[in-house]
């Protein structure tokens, strides 16, 4: 298929896993009714963003692969004949946990996984406490719809990840995300952060001649650690789709839950790459320094 419709589910999440799951089942079914062929959920769809604090009890939220999520979405994808993408808190082994993207094909089969490669560690984003860096590399996942370059949140700031996915023949780049502001930030700072987040992802679309789909959560989640003088995270939404020219063709707002739909035309990748032949003009013979952490 050259053309298909994608649905981005921008949603508020709670600590109640069952409520979140039922909400997503209803939204995925609604997306199918609206003609979606592919549905993308935000990062760590099952629960609140537990990485807001370092708490060993939150490891109880992890699940195996295959497990509850793959069983649920495999059944739903097969029934609706729709591709479903989400991320889970994966328990790979005792003491080894990952932030893992799963792709369920429209026949209900697990098409593939991607384990988050870049792991942040910032105030209220304590992901290194929970996640082992991934080992899957940047390999597209083939579905009956297209080849999906699945990446996760912090990965979206790294041009190397997007480039390798595109060179590996991904048709689209998809970034499930959980990113937001602190209430203590002023309005100018909030604007700067949001614009940087959108700009870096649009740049991946332009540099690689490829569609980019970014899906974020919304809503305020409270910081439970009173020793850290930040009230919590206000997830900023702004889920969007941009085309291979970097133009935003669909976008949500800052605060509302939304089912956002957009059409993807994969033939446009080819058209853009013909007029902007960045892949042709790369000088790979002089890029070896990229393997260095620093030049000194």
Q: If you had to describe this structure to a student in words, what would you say it looks like?
A:
The protein has one domain (3-276): Carbon-nitrogen hydrolase (Nitrilase/N-carbamoyl-D-aminoacid amidohydrolase, 4-Layer Sandwich). The chain is 24% helix and 27% strand. The chain has helices at 17-33, 68-80, 159-167, 187-208, 267-275, and strands spanning 3-10, 38-40, 83-93, 96-104, 110-115, 141-142, 147-150, 172-176, 180-182, 211-215, 218-222, 232-236, 240-242, 248-251, 258-265. Strands 5-4-3-2-1-15 form a six-stranded mixed beta sheet. The chain has a six-stranded mixed beta sheet with strand order 6-7-8-10-13-14, with helices on one face. Helix 3 (159-167) packs parallel to helix 4.
In brief:
With 296 residues, this protein is α/β, with parallel strands linked by helices.
CATH superfamily: Carbon-nitrogen hydrolase
Roughly what fraction of the amino acids lie in strands? 25-35%
User: What is the mean predicted local confidence, pLDDT?
Assistant: 96
Major sheet, described briefly?
A: 6 strands, mixed
What is the first-to-last residue Cα distance?
A: 48 Å
Quaternary: single chain
Helix coverage percent of residues? 10-25%
Secondary-structure element order, as H and E? EHEHEEEEEHEEHEEEEEEH
Q: At the first level of CATH, what is the class? A: Alpha Beta
Classify the fold: give the CATH topology.
Nitrilase/N-carbamoyl-D-aminoacid amidohydrolase
Task: List unreliable stretches of 5+ residues.
Answer: none
**Main sheet strand line-up:** 5-4-3-2-1-15
Number of helices: 5
What class do helices, strands and sheet pairing give? alpha/beta
How many domains? The number is 1
CATH architecture: 4-Layer Sandwich
Overall 3D form: globular
Q: How many runs of DSSP E, i.e. beta strands?
A: 15
Alpha-carbon Rg, integer: 18 Å
């Amino acid at each position: 298929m050259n053309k298909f419709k994608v649905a981005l589910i921008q949603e508020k999440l709670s600590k109640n896993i069952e409520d979140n799951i039922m909400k997503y089942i209803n939204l995925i079914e609604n997306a199918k009714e609206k003609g979606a062929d592919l549905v993308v959920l935000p990062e760590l769809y099952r629960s609140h963003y537990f990485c807001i604090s370092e708490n060993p009890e939150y490891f109880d939220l992890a699940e195996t692969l295959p497990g509850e999520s793959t069983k649920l979405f495999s059944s739903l994808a097969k029934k609706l004949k729709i591709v479903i993408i989400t991320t889970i808190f994966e328990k790979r082994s005792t003491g080894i946990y990952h932030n893992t993207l799963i792709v369920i094909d429209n026949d209900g089969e697990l098409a593939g996984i991607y384990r988050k490669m870049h792991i942040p560690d910032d105030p209220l984003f304590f992901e290194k406490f929970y996640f082992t860096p991934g080992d899957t590399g940047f390999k597209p996942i083939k579905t009956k719809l297209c080849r999906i370059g699945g990446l996760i949140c912090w990965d979206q700031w790294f041009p190397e990840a997007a480039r390798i996915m595109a060179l590996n023949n991904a048709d689209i780049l998809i970034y499930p995300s959980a990113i937001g502001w602190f209430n203590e930030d002023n309005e100018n700072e909030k604007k700067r952060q949001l614009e940087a987040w959108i700009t870096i992802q649009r740049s991946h679309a332009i540099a690689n001649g490829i569609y980019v789909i970014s899906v974020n959560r919304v809503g305020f989640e409270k910081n439970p650690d009173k020793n850290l003088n930040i009230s919590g995270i206000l997830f900023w939404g702004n889920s969007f789709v941009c085309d291979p020219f970097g133009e935003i063709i669909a976008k949500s707002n800052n605060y509302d839950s939304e089912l956002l739909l957009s059409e993807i035309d994969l033939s446009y990748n080819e058209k853009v790459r013909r007029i902007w032949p960045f892949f042709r003009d790369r000088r790979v013979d002089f890029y070896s320094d990229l393997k260095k952490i620093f030049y000194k």
